[in-house]
Each structure stands twice: as C-alpha cells, then as structure tokens.
Specification:
Strand 10 (117-126) and strand 11 (129-149) form a beta hairpin. This protein has 585 residues and is an alpha+beta fold. The longest helix is centred in the middle third of the chain and has 62 residues, at 333-394. It folds into 5 domains: 23-140, Immunoglobulin-like (Sandwich); 150-233, Sandwich (Immunoglobulin-like), CATH 2.60.40; 239-323, Sandwich (Immunoglobulin-like), CATH 2.60.40; 349-392; 395-437 and 447-569, no CATH class. The radius of gyration is 67 Å and the shape is flat. Helix 3 packs antiparallel against helix 4. The chain has 5 helices and 30 strands. Strands 2, 5, 6, 7, 10, 11, 13, 15 and 16 form a 9-stranded mixed beta sheet that branches. Belongs to the nectin family.
C-alpha cells in the first residue's frame, strides 16, 4: 500500500513537471477563432506555437474540415524533411515563414469563395505530444453592380425608368436616390444577386433629373453610388420669330427664325410658303430664313416652318405683310437698345458727378472749419502775447541775462537826473556865470554831462526854474518816444524786449561820456564811482532838490546796479520774467 502511494506521488510530480515545462500558442490565443476575408485578396491563417524548456516542434500540418466530417490535408512541414503541398492546394498555399516549425501561419494569396470553411493547425512536439488550433474562415465577395437606364418617350404609360443589379456575398442591398415621383421594386436571386427596378410616368420636365442607385454591403465603408440621369424624349414645338415688326418695301437684311426645342435637339428644319414657292433670293441658313435683297410687295404671304426629331415633328406659321412705307413713330430694336444703354451710361455718369460733388463739398466744409479753429487759436495766441507784453511793461524783470528797453529808459532817466543835478549845483561855488558866461573851470576845458551837453552854471532862481521846466519837457518827450517804440514792437508781433531802444540825442550836443566800468567784487551794486559824484547842494531849493535827489539815489541803490554802461535791475523773488518771445517765465 505504501509502495502504491509512493508511485502515485511520483506520477503526480512527473505530470506536474510536464505541465510546467510545456509551451503554449502565441496566436491565435483561443482554441476556436473566427476569421473573415474577401474574395480575390490575400488571406492569412495565424498559427504560432512557443516551446518551453526542452520541447521541440517536430512537424506542422494544416487540414481543412470537409462537410462529411473528414479532413482534407493541405500542407505539411517537417523539421528535417521540409514542407509538402497536397492535392488541389498545391501552388495555391504557402507558409508565411521560412521556418514553419517556428511560425506556422498559412497564406492563401488569391482567396476564392470555395476557400471558406474550418481549418485546423496541428502541432507535433517532443516530448509533450500534439496541440491544435481551429480557425473558421468566412469569405466575402464585394458587390459587383451595374445600372441599366431606359430611354422614355413622353406620353408613354407607367413603366420602368432604370434597373440596378449587384452580386456579392453576403447579398448587398439596393436603394435609389432621386426626387422623381415613382416606386422601386427589389428582387433577390440565388448566389447573392440582387436587382432593383424604378418605375414612373415619363414627362418632358423629368429630362436630366437625378436617378442614382446606391449599393450597400458590409464590406464597404459607405454605400457605392451609381450616377444616372433620366432621359425622356419628346417632339419639338416650332416657334417663328422676326427681327423686325414692321416689314416695308426696301427693307434690308430681313429674316425669320424658327426655334423648335424638343429632345433630342431637332436637326431637320424646312421652310415653305403657302400658295407657292419661296421668293427668289431667299435662302435657309440653319434655323433662319434670310432675304438676300430688299423686300418687295410680292414678298407678303404665309410662311411655314416644320421641325423634326427622332420622336416627332412640330410646325408653325408666320404671316408677312409688306407695306409701301415705313410706319412712323416706331423705333428699331437696335436703336432702342442703344438708347437704353446710353441712358444707363448717362445716369451712371450723373451719379458719379454727384458723388464727387458731395465729397468735395464735405472736404471744403471740413477745411473751412479747420481754418476757423486755426484762426481762433492764432487770435488767442496773439491776445495772450499782447497781454504778456503789457505785463512786461508794467513789471520789472530781474533776469540779468535780458537787456530790454525798460532798462534803457531807466538809464536815460538816470542820466537826465545827473544832468539836472549838474545844472542845479555847480562844481565851483565861487564862479558866477550867466547864459553868456564862461563854460567850465578857468582851465578852459568845457565841462559836459553824460549826455554830452555842456554844464551851464546859473545863480538866479528863474534860470533854475527854466532849466527844470526844460528838463521835464525833455523827459516827457523821451517817455512818449519810449511808448511809441513799445507800441511798434507790439504791432509788429515781436516781443518788446527784441526792439532796441536808444535814448534820442540832440544834433547839437557834444560827445557823451563813456559808461562807467562794470562793478568789481566789493563794489556797491548801484555803480557809484568816480563818474557818479555825490549830488551837490544848491542854494534856494536846497530842500526840494536834495529830497528829490535823495529818493532817486535811494531807488537806484535798492533796485538797480550799473554795469557796462547799462543800468540793470537787482534780482528779486517777486519779479515777473518775460521771455523775449513774449512768454512769461
């Protein structure tokens, strides 16, 4: 009993080891595998066994299952003897790989409908035995389709307008794509053949309408369309027209046109004249009847046109009446057309002119508006410049860089004061002179003031008052000249600082004394030096003159200093600076 148990254990271990070392199929992974292919295409039957451990594939054989249950051998490959093809499969099948014992997939280069069925891949290994995989092959046949149009004739009864056929496996499905009123009928036959018929009542208005057949099949991604246009034939309808409504004697190039229509297009057109033959010099050119000469009275009559095609014929009549003279008030068609074209062109030109005028008017209005705005801005700037100039006249500039006419006035006033002082108080108190007396000191040198005028020494109060009145009149004239110069600078549009102002000098005056030198460091800003002696005291009006001279000297010392012959203002924090261009700084 123990021995039997040990043997069973050994057998179980051996079976387990065999199971562990045996290989498996890489493809197909399932024992039963369905496969689909198309006729006239290449078909691949997969079979790949992967060995493990000491296994070895000895032989590979492909079989096809027959309906009676037997197997039909297709091809065999031995690891030593090579491969062999059998029966009707010889030359139609082959292995995919050059080593069939490694990759045993089978190829059918040109698949036929008869190749459908069940196939078996048999693998013989050592030492594990045989293994198999079963593949069921389905062969589809893509549909072969066709459409047969039918030529219809107007007036026929209800009948088939087109038929569509298709053959395939599995059987295809047929439909129609059209807007025509009709009905379709489908029929299926053995072998996967399907037919469809479309029927309707033919009318001439259906000619050229779409009547397409659609073929549906599982092997097609989208339905196959067979395009078709319906053809309905009908006889022509003849219509005669003329290029002129008024036929008169002497008319040139008269002609009549016969249009037939119909389908197919008529090719046979004949002209006749009722009651006789066509007049001489009349010819048929296609659809036209052309008179090759001027019309005559005997050209009047009834003309008939007959048009024929494959289906039938159509006729029309036209009565020609030739008058002796042309009707008044009628305009030929060609002239009427020219009048219409000329009127249209004139209207277009008028419209373009109106557009140009409107655009021009708009731009002129816009330019005028811009000019007005510019004029207002210019006037505003000029007004601002005048106001700035007036403020300049009423203010004292403290900018030492600007030398304006205001400083010239102060300089003239300063020289006038000095001259007045020189007139009021003589240098030599002991000399007694009159208007006809001696000039200057006893040395014979004439004493002059800064304006180049000789110093006159007087003793009497009346002479002093006369000199004072003349001095005041001279100052008034100088101020008026200064104001006139300022107004001229304003009227010219330039800042007053750009207009030079010089103190006018009398022609008879002597040479002027040079301006004092510029102040040096340590000098007083009033510029009082050797050329500016302290004002002397004159008897009589001593208090009045002394007070006036004192105030003038005080103003000069506090607000101005003398430099390079020019009286300049001292810098001040509240001063208003005016730029030479008229802008306030």
């Amino acid at each position: 009993m123990d021995l039997t148990g040990q043997r069973l254990k050994y057998l179980a271990l051996l079976l387990l080891s065999v199971i562990c070392v045996q290989g498996d199929f890489v493809e197909p992974p399932q024992p039963e595998t369905p496969l689909r292919s198309f006729a006239e295409s290449e078909t691949r039957l997969p079979c790949h066994y992967q060995v493990e451990g000491g296994q070895k594939v000895v032989q590979v054989t492909w079989y096809k299952d027959l309906p009676d249950g037997s197997k039909d051998q297709i091809i065999t490959a031995h690891f030593v003897d090579g491969h062999t093809e059998f029966g009707r499969y010889s030359g139609r099948v082959r292995f995919e790989s050059g080593s069939p014992t490694v990759n045993s997939a089978l190829l059918i280069p040109n698949t036929e409908e008869s190749d459908k069925g069940s196939y078996t891949c048999h693998i013989s290994t050592f030492p594990n035995g045989n293994f198999e995989r079963h593949i069921t092959l389905t062969v589809w046949i893509l549909p072969i389709s066709s459409l047969d149009p039918v030529i219809l004739v107007e007036g026929q009864s209800y009948r088939v307008a087109a038929s569509c056929r298709a053959v395939g496996r599995p059987s295809p499905h047929l439909t129609w794509d059209t807007d025509l009123p009709g009905q379709s009928l489908n029929r299926t036959q053995e072998g996967g053949s399907v037919s469809s018929y479309y029927s309707l009542h033919p009318l001439r208005g259906m000619t050229g309408k779409k009547l397409d057949c659609l073929v549906w099949h599982p092997g097609l991604e989208q339905p196959r369309r067979i395009s078709n246009r319906l053809v309905v034939q009908y006889p022509p309808d003849a219509i005669i027209s003329s290029t002129a409504e008024d036929w008169y004697v002497g008319m040139e190039n008269a002609e009549m046109i016969c249009s037939g229509g119909g389908y197919p297009k008529p090719q046979n057109i004949t002209w006749t004249r009722k009651g006789g033959a066509l007049p001489d010099w009349v010819s048929m050119v296609g659809e036209k009847l052309v008179f090759g000469r001027a019309l005559r009275m005997n050209d009047s009559g009834v003309y008939e046109c007959v048009v024929r095609n494959e289906v039938g014929a159509g006729a029309a009549e036209f009565t020609v009446t030739v008058t002796e003279t042309r009707r008044q008030g009628e305009t030929p068609v060609g002239n009427l057309l020219l009048i219409i074209i000329g009127a249209s062109a004139g209207a277009l030109v008028v419209a373009l002119i109106l557009v140009v005028l409107l655009v021009n008017r708009y731009h002129r209005h816009k330019n005028k508006k811009l000019e007005m705005e510019l004029s207002e801005k210019t006037e505003e700037i000029q007004s601002f410049s005048r106001q700035a100039s007036f403020r300049r006249l009423n203010s004292v500039s403290t900018d030492p860089r600007v030398q304006s006419e205001d400083y010239g006035l102060l300089r003239v006033d300063s020289r006038m004061k000095d001259s007045e002082i020189s007139l009021e108080q003589p240098i030599y108190r002991g000399s007694q002179s009159t208007l006809g007396g001696k000039w200057g000191p006893s040395s014979g040198v004439v004493e002059v003031d800064e304006l180049g005028r000789p110093v006159v020494w007087q003793n009497g109060r009346e002479s002093l008052r006369g000199a004072e009145l003349e001095e005041k009149e001279e100052r008034r004239r100088r101020v008026e000249s200064y104001l006139k110069s300022s107004n001229m600078s304003l009227d010219s549009g330039l800042p007053s600082s750009l207009v030079p102002l010089k103190a006018p000098q009398d022609e008879g005056d002597g040479p002027t004394q040079p301006d004092p030198a510029p102040p040096r460091e340590g000098d007083s800003p009033q510029g009082v030096g050797e050329d500016w002696p302290p004002p002397p005291v004159v008897e009589g009006h001593e208090e009045e003159v002394g007070s006036s001279s004192y105030h003038i000297s005080e103003a000069l010392n506090n607000h101005f200093y003398f430099s390079n012959g020019i009286l300049r203002p001292k810098p001040h924090s509240n001063a208003i600076l005016l730029h030479p261009r008229g802008q306030i700084i």
